[in-house]
Amino acid sequence: MRTLRLIGAVTLLAAAALTSLTGTALADDSSATPDPSASATGSDAPPTQAGTDFRTATVVGQGVQATADASAGDYLYWQFPADTGQHVTVHATVTFPTTSTRHGASSWQVDVYDGLRRRQPCRYGTQTATAAASATSVDLVCHLRTIRSWAEPWSNDPLRGAYYVRVTVLDLPSTDLGQPVHATVEATSDGTAGSQAVDGSVAPVVTANGPRVAPSDGWAGTWWSPRWLWTGGGGLLAILLAFAGHRLARGPLRPPAPSRPPMYDRPDRPREPAGYGD
Amino acid sequence: MIMRKLLAAGSACGLMAALACGLLPATAHAGEPVPGATPKVELVLDVSGSMSAKDIDGQSRMSAAKQAFDDVVDSTPDGVELGIRTLGANYPGDDRKTGCKDTKQLYPVGELNRDQAKSAVATLQPTGWTPIGPALLAAASDIKGGDGTHRLVLITDGEDTCAANPCDVARQIAAQGVDLTIDTLGLVPDTHTRSQLSCIAEATGGTYTTVQHRQQLTTKVKQLVDRSTDVAVTPTATQGADTCAGAPVLKRGLYSDRETFSQNRWYRVDVRPGQELRASATVSDDRSVNADYGVLLRGVTLHGREIVRDDESGTGRTDAVSAGIRYPKPKADDDDTPAETVCLQVGNSFSAPASVKTTPGLPVELSIDLVHSPDQPSDVAFYGLGRGWWLLGLLAATGIVAGLITGWAARWRLNTGRTR
């Protein structure tokens, strides 16, 4: 009976562990974990300028809203750091001041390039949008693939490092070229290195021929992952089940009774536990 | 035991990851620009007769430009060498030949004396022709030299009325190897001026702005002058060869070159064992090109075997197309292993209408990095930790089997009297 009760307790514990695990497993891909690289590197105020090419791209941290006053037709460049496991989303908004009159629709695009200046596809999001002549602003979104810690040199999978954002007009009436516009860009990210973790690591893809780009607390890579819970919980479960299995297979331990001769008139059976039947 | 092993593996891997991630990037920032470099800016102002037209907020274009210059001279950051050049300021006559040479340096590029610069601007009267091309050439020689950025800001209200196409002139200046950007501001939104000024800007990677209000002019010129203080690495000019054999050997750094339409250029890089070569090639279209284009970057061994390649193609309006490759060279067992020479091929598939000049070639920017990076993935993902129900089931099954075996062993020992 005691064994049975023990097994019951163990099962309960295991169930509790499992429930907590499922909970965290569900939270794996959500934004529940705080982003370790949410602030800019060495910049105290959000940048108000944009670069004009890869070389002069303005460095901006994740979660920081960078702005720039520019002219329609300019190519605006920013760069930001992204670390392993992050799902990065780049938001860009182009606002047209009311003082300028526009003569027709214009289409705008946001492009994201990795640290090797390879164009990165957007998994989803409005990468290209057309603004009607009367529109006051146009919103662009690009959701990148998950940043990986390692990839084959032949692939162009996104690796941790610098990412360039380019905002520009693709098509506009020639009469609107050079008109003032205002652009806003922000890169945000969520997720941990849990479900998407891959073997290996690569030194951050940041060129030495440019400004220093790094998350505010360095390229540690995130150490947190729900994998800790899965593995730890699994180990705990194994210990508990091993204990239970051991008790089950060994059977009850008889109390030592060398002082009294065995009673042959009574059947030999385990003692009832105290409090049984209350 | 399982857990202990897992934990040990995890901490060991964590340590290695921390070493790989934390230590390496610190060494990768030696190529930053010289902080003492002095940026040079020259404002090129059109003082042709048409600048007297009163259509900027009810004022004449000239007075709007003068006010903007006053504000800009006041707000120029210390350390920026600012000069002013005029075009069409002196010759009021009708002789085209003389009028088209009329450009003069009003204030030399150098340490700024704000009062002198302002009083020089105050004397200007709208006078002559609009020789943009000669003015740009002269301005480019004004700001030559130094290791800072070079920027020309051209403010004009009309297209070049002289022979030379200023757009070609701008491209020639850019091709001379001077790291020079020309920003243009048009005071009149007419078609010819717009296309010519945006062409000049495009040829040098600058910006074109249509100005309709005085405040807008001031803000924009200030912004452009401020931009000259942005630190950026100046590329080193190099010239790629037609084959790998005669190609220049490049070290870590930023390089600039020119290649004409559909041309291939070769460069060589020595990669030591344990290093990773990272190369990016950016080809800019500084003139009007056909709608479809592409860039190819290949890493090839000396024997012609392709190691790695990246190509990028696109369509529509763009300023540049770029491609990048990584090549990690495995660590060698002994230290004497020589560096491997990797040939880099940069090709482009830009094309242009027949009316477009093909020389000088398109600007190519080549960024070479050599970093220490692991060439093989480690065996474990995320410190060797696992996830998922299969892992859980396996651990549980292992636990219960181990428990049952030890339990049976214990019972057997009890029953056979080996244990009391």
UniProtKB/TrEMBL annotation, chain A:
Residues 26-43 have a biased composition (Low complexity). It comes from the Bacteria. The keyword Signal applies. Keywords: Signal. The keyword Signal applies. Residues 26-52, 252-278 are annotated as: Disordered. Residues 1-27 form the signal peptide. Residues 263-272 have a biased composition (Basic and acidic residues). This is Secreted protein. It comes from Actinacidiphila yanglinensis. The lineage of its organism: Bacteria, Bacillati, Actinomycetota, Actinomycetes, Kitasatosporales.
From TrEMBL, chain B:
The lineage of its organism: Bacteria, Bacillati, Actinomycetota, Actinomycetes, Kitasatosporales. Gene3D superfamilies: von Willebrand factor, type A domain (3.40.50.410). The keyword Transmembrane applies. This is Ca-activated chloride channel family protein. Keywords: Membrane, Signal, Transmembrane, Transmembrane helix. It comes from Actinacidiphila yanglinensis. Residues 40-228 form the VWFA domain. InterPro entries: CLCR, VWF_A, vWFA_dom_sf. Pfam families: VWA_2. Residues 311-337 are annotated as: Disordered. It comes from the Bacteria. PROSITE patterns: PROKAR_LIPOPROTEIN, VWFA. Residues 1-30 form the signal peptide. The chain crosses the membrane at residues 388-410.
